[in-house]
Structure formats: C-alpha cells, structure tokens
Specification:
With 468 residues, the protein is α/β, with parallel strands linked by helices. The protein contains 15 helices and 17 strands. It binds adenosine-5'-diphosphate, aspartic acid and magnesium ion.
C-alpha cells in the first residue's frame, strides 16, 4: 500500500446530495488503497458567492435581502442533509450545525448592517462558512458508511499571515500544526475531512486563501504531510487545452509540468488556484486533476518535467475584467526611475499587475490590472507624478477599460519558431485587433490584450489555429 494521499473535492463535486454520494464512493475507494487518506472539501457550488453577496447586501443596508439569502442557504443545506441521512443522530447533529452556523451568520450580518460596512476580516469569517458545514456533512456520511472520520477546521492546521481574503501560509508553523493535528488521526485510522479555503493567523483569527483556495489547501496539506500524491476532483476531465465552457472541443492534457500549470493558472485557468503548485514543487509531489463525474478516465498528471517534445503548445487561457493603465508623455524619456515610481504607486494600492508593456520609444508605459482597482491606481500614479504632470514631462495617466488577456502557454514554445505568427494569423482571420503583447519571462507564455468583446472569439480562433 502506498502511504498518504490528499484528495480535494471542489464545489460542484460536493454541491448536491448526488454529487456528495459520488464523492464519498471515491473516498471509500481511496481508503481501501492508501495507508493514510486526507480529504479536503469546498463549500457547495455557489455557496461562497452567496455568502459574499449576503455580507455585501447587509453592508448596503438591505435587511430583507440578506435574510432572504440566509434562508436560501438554510434550505439548500437542510435539504441535502435530509436527502443523505435517515432521521438518526448524525442527521440531528448536522441540522444543529447548520442552525448554529447560520445563526452566527445572521448575527454577523446584523452587525454589518448596523455599521454599514464589511471589513476583509469579517468577510473571511463569513465566506468560509460553507466549507465548515460541508466538512461536517461529509465526515458524518463517511461514518454512516462505517469508516472512521472526523471533520477538521483548517483553522486548527494552517497558519497564515493576516492578509485577509488572500492570506499566505507560514509554512514552518503550518507544517508543525498540520502534523500535530492530523498524524494522530492517522494513528487512530480516522479520515480527516478538512475545510478547504480557510485558515487562521497565529492568533487564531480566521483568514482565507483567496477564491478557489481549496486547491491550495490540498497542496499545503500534501506538502506538510509528505504525501505521495495530491488529487483534486473537479467537474471537468482534467486540465484542458482551453476552458471547455469557451471552447467546446477543448481536449484534456494528459501531462503538464509544474511551471506550465502555474502559468496556466496565473493567466486564468480557473481549474487550479494559481498558488497551488508552490507547496508541492519543493517536495516534488505529483498532482492529479480528475473528474468526479467521470472517474474512469485518468485526468491530468502534473509533475516536475513533462514531456517537452509532445504538444509544444499546451493551452489557451483568458482573464476577464481588466483595465490597461497607460502613463504617457514625450518628456518621460529623460526622467530617471519613472517605471519604478509608477509601479511603486501601483503597489501602494495593493493592486496586482498582470502584464506590462513599454513602448520602445520610452514615451509610454502600459500595464494591466483588475478593472475594479483602476480608479484608485490612476489617482495614486497621478499623485506620484504630480511634478512631472505639472511640467508636462508626463502628459496623462489614463485607463482603457473592458479588456481581457488571452495567453498561450507551453514549455515547448521557446524551441519552435512561428507560434506567434500562427497566433496572429488566427486573430487576423477573425478581424480581432490586438491592443498589447507581452512574452512571459519564463518563455512559457505569450500574452495578448484584446477587447472584452473579442475575448471568447480570440480564445476560440487561437485554439483552432494551434490545435486543429
Ligand atoms: P472546483 O469547484 O472543482 O474547484 P472550479 O469551478 O474552480 O472547480 O474549476 C473548474 C472549472 O474551471 C471548469 O468547470 C472549467 O470551466 C474551468 N476552466 C477554465 N480553464 C480551464 C482549463 N484550461 N481546463 C479545465 N478547466 C478549465
Ligand atoms: N469555496 C471557495 C470558493 O468558492 C473555495 C474553493 O471552492 O476552492 O472560492
Ligand atoms: Mg476551484
């Protein structure tokens, strides 16, 4: 028997009574084959979105609105529990768990309603509630099936900094805590069912790892437990050549390298959280992406060195809801440190820069950021450049909204000429205008900025040009 396996189930994979039954069957199979098994679960699909909407509605002053959302959350969870369990003690306890969590949520939202604002810290307590309920449902179901199992809140295992909504684990402390919390469970032959997405600071204050963070939770646990493998069970057949929602004929990629998948996730392939690879790279742990609804096929295997000869280009991705900010002026050429100061001003807003392109004449710098941050970023850059704007060295700082980044990813790209030509030919064929271009520093990717209206067509035509 192999040693430790970490299995993570995403939102759709545990989003209904039927899905939970499938997930539990897969856990049972795993328990028969692996010496130690850890399960990580997400909230039911859509629940995290609704929790966030609930908190925002409360902050916006609509009491009716947030109470309605809480009612709907109650109905959904209660009906899943009633479908999965007979009227027994496990069922009674789960109904109490749901009541308890939702009455906490109601109390929190009522304070938010009075204050008229929701802090990132409060948002983390609220948005992680779905994971807390689901871990308990799944552990209880495993017990009903005769396995030993225990729900574990990741706040007892994963220690992070205090960057709410996008916290970063402190790995040494986390390793210690994970081992002292979970190894005894293995000793007792129990399967821990750990909440994905959430963690806590050293002082025990709840944090979250960013949207889609349960993948990251699984990788962190895998690394800390020296797992042999980490598997993420999701709702598609693996990592694919494009998002199958955009490109129906996208194909599964059987094998990818850590570097390729990081680039893919960073540039928008939602199938894995962008930081998932970090904890497992060092320990060289293989990561598999598999389909809960089609478990017979292997899925995607992610390892250190994927076969470079095969499929030179691996995938096309899309990131939406972006703005391109441009700092321009004929006098910029002579001003030292202008790029450093620009990005310093961006960093002060906490905005992440996804892509940079500088005109060769040095008369402008453009960079891409999430649309929701563009107004603050412009103000911050303008105040940094106050003097230059006055002197007309910098003419203006402005944003182009409604753009997306389309990225072509693959380790083989640097070895073959002509990929860029094929990409541009495909876009030209559709009459799509390219606003800006950047080659990834890793040589693994080529990114293009196009207008949001062209995004889906750009992905489709590039995919067609490269893979068909
Ligand atoms: P989970 O809840 O299981 O974590 P997510 O919704 O977070 O699932 O991620 C899976 C989704 O990612 C798929 O349903 C698919 O629409 C989307 N996706 C985007 N890009 C890709 C890609 N390149 N390969 C596979 N899925 C992708
Ligand atoms: N439930 C969380 C989210 O929707 C985490 C996850 O699904 O990975 O973002
Ligand atoms: Mg996900």
């Amino acid at each position: 028997m192999d040693r430790t396996l970490v299995m993570k189930f995403g939102g759709t994979s545990v989003g209904s009574a039927d899905a939970i039954n499938r997930a539990v069957t897969l856990i049972q199979e795993g328990a028969g084959k692996w010496e130690n098994l850890v399960v990580v679960v997400s909230a039911m699909s859509g629940v995290t979105d609704n929790l966030i909407r609930c908190a925002r509605t409360a902050a916006g002053g609509q009491q009716e609105g947030y109470l309605e959302i809480i009612e709907a959350l109650r109905d959904r969870h209660v009906s899943v529990v009633n479908l999965l369990f007979q009227a027994d003690q496990e069922q009674q306890e789960l109904l109490q768990v749901i009541e308890h969590q939702l009455s906490n949520l109601t109390a929190l939202c009522s304070s938010i309603h009075i204050l008229g604002e929701v802090t990132p810290r409060a948002m983390d307590v609220i948005s992680s509630l779905g994971e807390r309920i689901n871990a308990r449902i799944i552990a209880a179901l495993l017990r009903e099936l005769g396995l030993l199992s225990q729900a574990v809140d990741a706040t007892e295992c994963i220690v992070t900094d205090a960057r709410f909504q996008s916290a970063v684990p402190l790995m040494d402390k986390t390793r210690e805590k994970v081992r002292s919390r979970l190894l005894p469970e293995f000793g007792e032959n129990r399967i821990p069912v750990v909440t994905g997405f959430m963690a806590a600071t050293e002082d025990g204050i709840t944090t979250t790892l960013g949207r889609g963070g349960s993948d990251y939770t699984a990788a962190i646990l895998g690394s800390c437990l020296d797992a042999a493998e980490v598997w993420t069970w999701t709702d598609v057949d693996g990592v694919m050549t494009a998002d199958p929602r955009l490109v129906p004929d996208a194909k599964v990629i059987p094998m990818l390298s850590y570097a390729e998948v990081s680039e893919l996730a960073y540039f928008g392939a939602k199938v894995l959280h962008p930081r998932t690879i970090r904890p497992i790279v060092e320990r060289n742990i293989p990561l598999w992406v598999k389909n809960t609804f089609n478990p017979g096929i292997e899925g995607t295997c992610i390892v250190r060195e994927a076969d470079k000869q095969q499929d030179l280009v691996k995938a096309v991705t899309l990131i939406k809801d972006l703005s391109m900010v441009t700092v321009e002026g004929r006098g910029m050429m002579g001003v030292p440190g202008i790029a450093a100061r620009t990005f310093g001003a961006v960093a002060r807003q906490g905005a992440s820069v996804l892509m940079i392109s500088q005109a060769s004449s040095e008369q402008s710098i453009s960079f891409i950021i999430p649309a929701e941050t563009s107004q603050e970023v412009i103000r911050s850059v303008e105040s940094e450049m106050e003097l230059e704007l006055e002197r007309r060295d910098v003419d203006r700082v402005w944003a182009m909204d409604g753009i997306v980044i389309v990225t072509v990813v693959g380790a083989g790209m640097r070895h073959i000429p002509g990929i860029a030509a094929r990409v541009f030919k495909a876009l030209a064929g559709e009459g799509i205008n390219v606003v800006a271009i950047a080659q990834g520093s890793s040589d693994f990717s080529l990114s293009l900025v196009v207008s949001a209206a062209d995004g889906a067509a750009a992905v489709g035509s590039i995919h067609n040009g490269l893979f068909n």
